[in-house]
Structures are given as structure tokens and as C-alpha cells.
Design a protein that fits this description.
The structure holds 2 protein chains of 2 kinds. By secondary structure, chain A is mainly beta. In chain A, 0% of the residues lie in helices and 39% in strands. Chain B has a single domain, classed as Ubiquitin-like (UB roll) (Roll). Classes of the chains: A mainly beta, B alpha+beta. Chains A and B meet through strand 6 of A and helix 1 of B.
Chain lengths: 395, 98
């Protein structure tokens, strides 16, 4: 029987939740990397037992971990336990936790500053990896979206990382600025229909697209309106919280912006608002049904000043019309005194026939629906604050 | 042999259970000890010193013989008791939070 593996990153470690295809009984393993912040972990579509994890700490910096057995054991790529850690000549075999911005002359215009909160220019400083996106086809290729915003790629299973510096260097970088959570590149979407096309999103810069495997980039923010920035329709500067796509229609994108839920039908060339009847269109997560490309999920959050559900009721909203018309999904969710948040990478959807929907909260709960959102059950209730949720559908 | 005591999280990362010992050729300084430590445990690269600047990460401190060497230049000789292995170099995570 098929099953699912839910990968949960939290403020104090990673947890792996597994169940068979019925998704009724759950086993929890963890904490992995106890005490460390795990911003994100994700499995390779090309080799589901290969998982990557972003492990970080304010004390010790950034670590990349990899598992090749579905999360049972982990190593830093290139330094497996029990093997020599250096090669001939004493050089380290790998530098899997080294993320260094490209300031080489080959990039043409190495970029050293971006806009700071007060409008002045500020040096780019690496903080952490927010999002890991394994290649759809090659288990050794993986992308990392980092803070301060940049995109890195490894082609050796995470042993070494190189910046795709055309993104920071394309011209608008000096206008990017940090959001409240830092200047993070939090979304990486690889187009299943065009291996050269990559979408990314940055808070607070906006969405960007490359059509040549990450060499060159352009902003795709036409139609976004952000009244809280000096030029509400500026080319960049928008606080995009998350973007989602359905595999069958890679040209259709859904976006949860700071405020506003948006939709693009032309690969991001232009966007239209589809907030419709949502009780509030502020939020962080957004995702698409596994089999219905017009069915979209969001979790409305009260406001940018009050990061918790409206009226203390935790509700998912679903649109079966690609936006504008939204229905409340609340069976099994707390409908009183609930003041948690659901962070941008903390929703995921499996691909079983009746697809499962999962999301995690800053209160340490992970909720699952085995019927596309109609009914919800907590599958973990007392974890540290959840930073990210991913799910793998296993054969 | 130089003795080094690591913070708990770095022991887990390096897969060691207690203090570690490293060989240092030449003068025993912060830099030479950390170079030897990272050569022996490459997984610690970047966790104690920045990859590029080689500066101490802000929330870590270095103590030798009950003295704080954190703000000393990295090539300052460490005490003889560290060089002889009589005392360990302590790498300590700053206590932060409340």
C-alpha cells in the first residue's frame, strides 16, 4: 500500500511523520538535529529516499544535512561518518555549509548592497537557507533560497554550492529590502514542462523568473499593488509571501502576497487579484490541489500587525474556481481561542487519489486532511513552532 | 596535543562525545588551534569562524585558563598550559535569551 511521509521543520529540530495511504495512524520520529532551527527539509522527486535539510543556529550558522534512507540517518554531504573527512593534500572533501556570494568579475556587475529598512544601502550578508528545492529529475542537483536573498545551486548532492548570481545582478537588487522576517528568498519553483524555467520569490522584492536555467532573470510583478511601499505598482519591492503552481499547468501561478491573493495565467507576466470573499486576504501559505488545478488553499491571517487567525478561529479556505469564490474549511480545526500563525512554507499536499492537505502552526500543531480539506485532524500537537511542512507520496 | 572543549551542539555535529584533541605545528594560537580543529573535523567549518572573513562568530567565546581570549587577535599565543595540554581551550556558546 502506498503511504506518505510528512517532513516538518521546527524551531528546535526536524520531525518526520509517516502513515499508510489511509492516513489515519501516524508515527512520529524526531527530533532530528535537536535544538537547531530547521527552516526547511524536502525530498528529491527523483529519489524519494534522498532528503535535504537546512539546519541553522544563531550561534553556529548554517549546516546542510542529507539523508539517503528517507530520514533514518543523516550526514553533511561530503563528510559521511566513519570516513576520512579530507582528501589527498588535506583539503576538505566538501564544503556543504559554505554559502558565499559570488562577487567575481565574471558576473559582469558584482552586487554588494541592497536597500536597508531606513532606505540606505546595506551589504549583502548571508544568514541562512530558507528553502531547499531538489531538482525534479536529478537527485544530485538541488537549489537553495537564502537570506540575504540569493539563489544557490549544488550539482553534487549538496557537497558544494554556487550562487546563480544573475539573479542578484540583473539590475534591481539595490532596490530589494528586508521584510519583517529578513530579506529571504523563500520560494523556488521548477517548471516541470520547461527544465530551463525557474520561478523564485523574495520578501520584500517580489517574484522573478528565469528562462535559461538561472543565468538571467527578470521581475514578474506586473499587476501587484502594494499601497505600503513608495510606488505601489513598482517593478520590485513587493512583499510576496509564497507562490504555488500545479504541475499540469506550469503557466498558472497562485500567490499569497503580504495582503492580496493573486493569480497569473501567463507565467507571471501579469497578475490579477483573486481574494474575492476571503474574510482577510493577508496570509502566508498558498497551495494547489494535487488533481484539480483550479482548487487552491490559503489560511487567512488577521493582519500584518496581528499574525493570528481572525476571531481566534483557525480555518483553511478553499477555492474550486481558481480564486475569487472561497469556502471555509473548519471541520476538526480549533474555532475558538486560537492565536497561532501558519508560516509560508508550512503547507503541503500529497498526491494520493483523494489528496491530503497538511499544514503546521507556530503553536506546534500539524493538521492533516485526508479528503482534500473537508475534514481535519491534528497529527502532531505539541511540537516546537513549525517553520515548514512538506509531504512525500510514497509507492 | 591540544585539548579543545566544544559546545554541545558542535559535539553532536562532529560526532564526538567529550573534548577533542588536535595536533598543532608551530605556535599555539587561536588561529592555529582552529585551523587544526577544522582540518580534523571539516563539518565544523563555518560554525566557529565565518567562512570568508575567518572572524569568530558573534555568539561564541574562547576561554583559556579562566581568561577570555575572544577579543584577542587570532595570532596571540595561548597560555603554555594550553600548549602543553594541561588545560583545554574552551569554546563556549554565549548565553542569550531569558
Amino acid at each position: 500500500m502506498s503511504g506518505v511521509r510528512v517532513l516538518v521543520g521546527t524551531r528546535k529540530g526536524a520531525f518526520i511523520l509517516t502513515a499508510d495511504g489511509k492516513r489515519q495512524r501516524w508515527d512520529i520520529s524526531g527530533p532530528h538535529f535537536s535544538g537547531w532551527e530547521i527552516y526547511h527539509l524536502k525530498g528529491s522527486p527523483a529519489n524519494p529516499n534522498r532528503l535535504f535539510a537546512s539546519q541553522c543556529s544563531g550561534w553556529f550558522g548554517q549546516i546542510i544535512q542529507r539523508s539517503d534512507d528517507g530520514g533514518k540517518t543523516w550526514t553533511q554531504p561530503g563528510t559521511p561518518p566513519g570516513e576520512p573527512t579530507t582528501g589527498p593534500g588535506g583539503m576538505p572533501k566538501a564544503e556543504s555549509n559554505k554559502f558565499v556570494y559570488d562577487v567575481s568579475s565574471e558576473t559582469g556587475k558584482p552586487l554588494t548592497t541592497h536597500q536597508w529598512y531606513d532606505g540606505t544601502q546595506h551589504p549583502w550578508e548571508f544568514k541562512r537557507v530558507w528553502h531547499i528545492e531538489p531538482s525534479l529529475t536529478d537527485p544530485d542537483t538541488v537549489y537553495a533560497g537564502v537570506e540575504d536573498a540569493a539563489l544557490f545551486r549544488s550539482t553534487d548532492g549538496g557537497k558544494n554550492w554556487k550562487e546563480l548570481s544573475g539573479l542578484r545582478g540583473h539590475g534591481t537588487g539595490p532596490k530589494w529590502q528586508p521584510g519583517a522576517g529578513g530579506m529571504c528568498l523563500h520560494t523556488v519553483i521548477l517548471d516541470p514542462g520547461d527544465p530551463q524555467r525557474i520561478y523564485i520569490a523574495i520578501s520584500a522584492a517580489g517574484a522573478f523568473r528565469s528562462d535559461d536555467s538561472g543565468k538571467t532573470w527578470r521581475p514578474i510583478n506586473k499587476g501587484l499593488v502594494s499601497p505600503y511601499i513608495p510606488e505601489p505598482t513598482a517593478e520590485v519591492g513587493h512583499c510576496v509571501h509564497h507562490v504555488a503552481m500545479h504541475r499540469s499547468r506550469p503557466g498558472v501561478l497562485f500567490m499569497q502576497k503580504h495582503w492580496d491573493v493573486m493569480r497569473s495565467d501567463n507565467s507571471g507576466d501579469s497578475w490579477t487579484e483573486v481574494s474575492g470573499n476571503l474574510p482577510t486576504d493577508f496570509g502566508f501559505v498558498i497551495d494547489v490541489h494535487a488533481h484539480e488545478p483550479e482548487t487552491v488553499y490559503v489560511v487567512p491571517i488577521k493582519s500584518d500587525g496581528e499574525h493570528f487567525p481572525l476571531d481566534g478561529k483557525l480555518r483553511v479556505y478553499r477555492s474550486r474556481a481558481g480564486g475569487n469564490e472561497w469556502e471555509q474549511l473548519s471541520k476538526g480545526l480549533p474555532l475558538r481561542d486560537c492565536y497561532v500563525n501558519v508560516l509560508r512554507d508550512a503547507m503541503a499536499i500529497d498526491t494520493l487519489d483523494k489528496c491530503g492537505v497538511y499544514f503546521g502552526t507556530t503553536g506546534g500543531q500539524v493538521y492533516a486532511s485526508a479528503d482534500s480539506g473537508d475534514n481535519w485532524t491534528p497529527i502532531a500537537e505539541h511540537l516546537p513552532a513549525v517553520l515548514s511542512v512538506e509531504v512525500q507520496t510514497l509507492p | 596535543m591540544i585539548r579543545v572543549v566544544l559546545p554541545g551542539h558542535l559535539r553532536t555535529l562532529a560526532r564526538v562525545s567529550a573534548e577533542v584533541q588536535v595536533n598543532v605545528e608551530g605556535p599555539v594560537t587561536q588561529r592555529s588551534v582552529l585551523d587544526a580543529l577544522e582540518a580534523q573535523y571539516p563539518m565544523l567549518r563555518g560554525t566557529i569562524r565565518d567562512h570568508v572573513t575567518q572572524e569568530r562568530r558573534p555568539f561564541l567565546r574562547f576561554f583559556a585558563c579562566e581568561e577570555d581570549y575572544s577579543l584577542q587577535p587570532p595570532d596571540t599565543p595561548l597560555p603554555e598550559a594550553i600548549a602543553s595540554g594541561a588545560e583545554p581551550l574552551l569554546i563556549i556558546g554565549a548565553i542569550a535569551g531569558g
